[in-house]
Design brief:
Blueprint: E1 7-10, E2 15-18, E3 26-31, H1 42-60, E4 64-71, E5 77-79, E6 83-86, H2 87-95, H3 99-116, E7 124-127, H4 132-144, E8 148-151, E9 154-157, H5 173-182, E10 194-199, E11 217-219, H6 221-233, E12 237-243, H7 250-262, E13 269-275, E14 278-280, E15 285-286, H8 297-303, H9 307-315, E16 323-324, H10 327-351, H11 357-362, H12 372-379, H13 384-398, H14 403-414, H15 421-435, H16 458-473, H17 477-489, E17 492-497, E18 500-505
Parallel strand pairs: 3-4, 3-12, 4-7, 12-13, 14-16
Antiparallel strand pairs: 1-2, 5-6, 8-9, 9-10, 10-11, 14-15, 17-18
Helix pairs in contact: 2-3, 6-7, 9-10, 10-15, 13-14, 13-15, 14-15, 16-17
Bound molecules: adenosine monophosphate and zinc ion (ZN).
Adenosine monophosphate (AMP) binds near residues 32, 34, 245, 275 and 286.
Length: about 500
Amino acid sequence: MLDRPLQLFNSLGRELQEFNPVVPGRVGLYTCGLTVYNYAHIGNLRAYLFTDTLRRVLQWKGYDVNHVMNITDVGHLTSDADEGDDKMELAAERRGKTVWELAEFYTGAFEKDLVALNILAPSVWCKATDHIQEMIAFARRIEDNGFGYQLEDGLYLDTSRVSDYGALAQLDLEGQQEGARVETKEGKRQASDFVVWRRSPEDSKRLMEWHSPWGVGAPGWHLECSVMSIKYLGHHFDIHTGGIDHRQVHHCNEIAQNEAFLGRGCSAVNYWMHNEFLTFGEEAEKMSKSTGRFLRLATLVDWGIHPLAYRHFVLMATYRRPLEFSFEALVAAKNGLARTLRRVAAIREEAGEVAGLELAAEVRFTQGGPLSYLLEQWIEPLSEAARGYVERLDESVSRDLNTPQALAHLGELLADDALEPADVLRLVAIYEQVLGLGLLTTAAADLNLRPAAASLASSEVDALLVERQEARASRDFARADEVRDQLQAEGVLIHDSRDGTTWEWSPRSD
Ligand code: AMP
Ligand code: ZN
């Protein structure tokens, strides 16, 4: 029943296109990973949530996905346009650590963030510094094929030799060349030419450098992604992802290198996909590590926002629209997810045992395999009406990963009294495969994190609530109100109902 074609927005051409894989049934997917000179910020994590959704949808559509992601631990300069210092070296010097220590520490922190967000681990993680010799071999072939030229500071790629340089960015090359006459590096043939191998200056020693035919030095940043994507996914693969900033320079340069390596007209990748930014503040500024204006996932947790609430917040928007961060919106996303989880728990109680549900909750996509075998098992017992919701999910995500629409359908099915509770749960299991919100493994209470700024311990809150209860029983309402006000001032939300009193932490960003 799920044979609707998958439509994806290809940045190359800027249009929705029907997805057709190079090899039937299989997808090669490459994602530009983190530059590990600092923690990932929640903007970066939006990029990985986007790729995770893409991967889950591909598996939903029945593909076997080979997902490769790199870790950038060399070569990324403070400016994407080949200027400035290497971000890794700069950070290592500032902190008095080696580059390797820094990379290991931030890679570990990044992996923890991915796990907390339910982002599936890639099939292959690869580190730039583990591929230096392959990068040298790749660059040598670029030169042998006549696409390179040497300047004093290294090997450059002549972008005029590439068939359509800048097509991905829709670059105004003429305008760029004009600008180039005013300020470009001496000897560069075109302003758009870029460094493939950077030679270390004679008088200084870099923290990371290697011997090469172009002298001792380090690879340009763009080289690593060309080399590792082609190494692990072959000369022709399906999808390459990254944030929208990569569309302008990094990915154009990858395409140029690929063509210089593979031959004219062969750029290796069929679909280029980019997520828009997470922005914040009045100026809708891009959240960025280099300006230091950014939030980490750990900061949200300190505020009392669960990582899955952030996942929910991101999925409530489509990946191709800029998403404005606000604390209020985040709290709303947390409350929305808590409502959903409470509803799932109530239905679970009503339905009792449902065969296959535990299996559904445990499914991990580690192998990247297609979901078809599971789906058949889950869809088969569904009523006609319930199947309609599977169709709706498929329709939403097949149209360029429309997660807000999928979430809306989840809300509808949870409120649909005409469905059997067991069918609702099977549907939740099916939606979970694509949304990854922990719908069957997380309880609403798990989202209730204690903000770091809260001065009371949970046990103290409990004790105060007992005191309030006693004051009420002895009709000392003044004392009862006093306790309630004190708790509220401490960021504790109290809910009184006929069944008793419950409470939760209210997230706070102060
Ligand atoms: P970097 O560590 O700078 O290489 O970035 C890692 C990924 O995060 C890349 O795909 C970037 O394009 C992406 N990215 C950076 N800033 C943001 C942001 N504010 N919103 C969304 N994605 C971002
Ligand atoms: Zn990259």
